[in-house]
Amino acid sequence: MKRNLLIFFALLWCGPWPLLSAQEAPLMIEKQYLSGQDKDHTVDWDFYCSEGRKSGEWTRIAVPSCWEQQGFGAYNYGHDPMESRAKEYGLYKHRFSIPKDWKQREVKLVFEGVMTDAEVKVNGKLAGEIHQGAFYEFKYSISKLLKFGQENVLEVKANKVSANESINYAERKADFWIFGGIYRPVYLEAFPKQHIERVAIDAQASGAITADVFMQASAAKKITMELQRVNGEKIQDIKVELVGQSKDKWQVKGIAKNIKSWNPEQPNMYQLAIHLKDRKGDVLHTYQQKIGFRTVELLAGDGIYVNGERIKFKGVNRHAFHPSSGRTTSKALSIEHVLMMKDMNMNAVRMSHYPPDVHFLDVCDSLGLFVIDEVCTWHSPHLDTEVGRKIVKETVVRDVNHPSILLWANGNETGWNTELDDDYALWDIQQREVIHPWNIFRKTNTLHYFHYHALANDAYSQDKIFFPTEFLHGLYDGGHGAGLQDYWHQMWHMPTSAGGFLWDFADEAIERTDKGGELDTDGNHAADGIVGPYGEKEGSYFTIKEVWSPIYLEDRYIREGFNGVFRLENRYHFTNLRDCKMEAKWVQFDGPEGSVKPNMLSASKVDLPALEPAQKGKFTVSKPRNWQQADALYLTATDAHGQEIFTWSYPVQTPRAHNSAKVKTEATGDRPGWKKEGDQYVVSAGEMVYRFSASTGILKEVKSAAKWIPLHEGPVILEHKDKIDSIFVQERGDQLQLVTVYEATDKTPAWAQHVELSSDRIVWTISPDGLLDLEVEIKSKRRVKGFKGISFSFPEEQVQGMKWLGDGPYRVWRNRMKGTRFQIWENDYNNTVTGELGFVYPEFKGYFSSLYWAKVKGKNNNGFTVYCHSPFTFLKMLTPEAPSEDPKNRVTPQFPKGDIAFLKNISGVGTKFQTPDSMGPHGNEENYFGNDDDPIIIHLTFDFNNSTRPMLGTN
């Protein structure tokens, strides 16, 4: 419900402004769409494609759209060789009528975006010069070309490839999909003859307003201003001071009183109504503009300040893209994307690598995200100065009034034309600063894809404001959340760090209309998202949500002496924690045959301390009388708008204590029978028959009275080279034990000669009812490379799904442990290769942390349930397929041999440009386990009769 309300208000605030119908306000601008308004609402125009698919004949096409997605032309990715690039052009024709009374108005024809060169004719005559550049709004005054009250003909020739080679380098050879067509809306604007063309407004956090009012109004003698709510309701009149005047531009100033400033945490928006009046005081034209009051400063050697607060950008790069429609998007999609960013506790987004649809910026204004707005350039050579100056002007003039925009980016990664750096200030009344992404420029260092050790920041540029506009590249399942905990810890505590921007938001996978809708990411070029092509959430989504939580909780473990105290830090910039809420829930979990839903023992409100931003403090969770009977404690924080910040989970019971009530043997009075057949021990217990190797103690086969269960070839002690000392069978009450003892190591260090080192051992304990217990002791070392644990074989084709108690529902990497929740989860088998194959999430295969028990569901077999009594144990479920295009194996993590493994350590994952060990401490391949003489113990119980065993129920 709360999410729906957010969407409603975003739609309200981001409506078509400043354009209202004549029926509502005759002295305002009328707007008539000639195309549809977005990807989901289009209008068919006549169309001719010059080459490629469906070419050579006139037909119909949806506008707006990318013509490749309508079945025309050919596809290209920016890296394609020049000789293979499609060079088609499209001819558009559309007939329209306008009211007779528009003859008394000034009519403009507006294109929000055409790829890439556009020649426009109205009634057979050129509307103006050919426009070059795919991502920029352009318009023509066409009153003299129109037939009022009659049919008019609009013709557009859209060339996919520009006649300007610097445009092609900037836009057509970049690292993203290349499309063609009129892909953003087309409409008419009808102004009064005496009118305001546009305004540029600087609304400071103090309430001070400066406005440049651009007009065509010879009769204008006065300007008045009125501050309104976003719905048009009047709040106050603004006393206006005229401080500058020319024929086409007046500059006025005023002060609004008792306003609320804009920031991402409280994105307070207003509407400024500017009335243009004649000598008699009659209104000639009223122009309404949405504004937010906020102040931006870049203080050299210090940081980026908004409303006097130093900011840490928690940002992501984002393409304007949808798999079915390419670059043609919608307001609904913009809202969906911004809501997901806000849900991840982000506060910023970088436009990569071009200005977005205007509705995306409207949503950033209304829901609250900082924005870096960027012109499209890509590496070298840069845009030529003549066309570049037009593009900078078009960008700034369109976007100048958005409070969300803090900075302008003059291109990407060496594509900067430095002759354009000062052009932004010509059009920006707010005088926002310009950056060069990937470069040290003026006050900033926006280095891309640096190693963790660069955060030492001891280079000659250490006095620059450090905020990478791209870092932790998220190819496949690498980066993003992996490494973020380490990077963010350093960035948060670096005085000159202003945070950074992850690469990037969503996998840019296009539905290929020439391949039956097959999704294509152009290999490893566009599979970089935190979410999948349709917004499917990957594991890093939730890691980011926790690491970037504005309420930071220290790691906490609940043990016997738990006092209920948690320490926290307010990592908001503008919000006091008294405006947030937190609830504590003590829960219990059912067993493998029970419900996945937790059972509530107790719930209570947590009183958060009234901490200002950057302050630290503590709070206390009430402990109910029976708190030690709980399995877990959940803490859920919500923000001032009622949205969840994060839910932290803390196991209360140890695995052994939790499982003790669920793993009980049934007394049958009969000890398991056993015999030796060749090189195998055959053990019979209840309905179960087990076969073990007599030479290794390895489980070779499991059979029940009903079916064969394909768990075998384990436990294999990973990376283990010691020889077997002895194997023997022994009776222990009504149980049977099979014990394998390995020789003690002969590599005792000199300093430890006095220490009696233990031998590795495997102990199988079989109960009369068939319950199979396994305890493995493995010699420990202080420093370990490689895997410590055991593995089994279970053919992948025999696995149907898994239900487990532990962290989930997403897999983890050593450098991406945050973002999970401890509870019962249930996933069906899938073979997703993240970002490349399947797009089904959560991925089934991989590492899962904090295992308590798992029920493995078999195909054509009963499967089994395994209870893990050892704390901090990882489950490795099968081995994920490696992505097809990872030539340096940076995003292909290491996995131990075997299908199912129980581990004490796991591997990290890298990024497209980094190996895990270069991404911080959690990516290091070495593990530290403590004393050399303290063995690692993995204690498991296997139940192969779990569907009938009565003792394995709920608490």
Automatic annotation (TrEMBL):
Catalytic reaction(s) noted: Hydrolysis of terminal non-reducing beta-D-galactose residues in beta-D-galactosides
Cofactor(s) named in the record: Ca(2+)
BP terms from Gene Ontology: lactose catabolic process
Enzyme Commission code: 3.2.1.23
Cellular component terms (Gene Ontology): beta-galactosidase complex
Domain spans labelled Glycoside hydrolase family 2 catalytic: 302-515
Entry's Gene Ontology molecular function annotations: beta-galactosidase activity; carbohydrate binding
Family affiliation: Belongs to the glycosyl hydrolase 2 family.
The protein's assembly and partners: Monomer.
Protein name: beta-galactosidase
Species this protein is from: Persicobacter diffluens
